[in-house]
Specification:
The protein has about 110 residues and is an alpha+beta fold. It has helices at about 10-20, 55-65; strands at about 1-10, 30, 40-50, 65-75, 90-95, 100-105. It has a domain at about 1-65 and about 95-105: Alpha-Beta Plaits.
């Protein structure tokens, strides 16, 4: 038995969850924060049999692929306060992907 923690972007969470449900893979969805540009994250906690770990990894690869997007960043003055009258700077950033931790589970009980 394995426990998988997958940290993904909020924007990828619904499609990923739907794909897991479609394959009858149970999970717990946790809200989390952090990352570049302070986008919201979702952490999926997935308990799975050893032989199905690759199936979960494929779902994550299919739904959380890295991609490039244009982000609009407002310039900041001293103290991190946005300066809205100076214009916006579009930057190309790589988004998506997943940070995945796979742990061995010594004991598992469903109560």
């Amino acid at each position: 038995m394995k426990l998988i923690f997958a940290v993904i972007r909020d924007k990828d969470a619904n499609d990923t969850a739907a794909s897991l449900v479609e394959r009858h893979i149970g999970f717990t969805k946790l809200a989390s924060t952090g990352g570049f540009l302070r986008d919201g994250n979702t952490t999926l906690m997935i308990g799975i049999e050893d032989h199905r770990v690759e199936e979960v990894m494929e779902v994550l690869k299919d739904n959380c692929a890295k991609r490039s997007e244009m982000e609009i960043v407002a310039p900041h003055a001293t103290g991190g306060v946005p300066v809205w009258n100076l214009g916006y700077t579009p930057i190309k950033v790589e988004v998506g992907g997943a940070t995945v931790f796979v742990l061995d589970v010594a004991d598992y009980k469903k109560l």
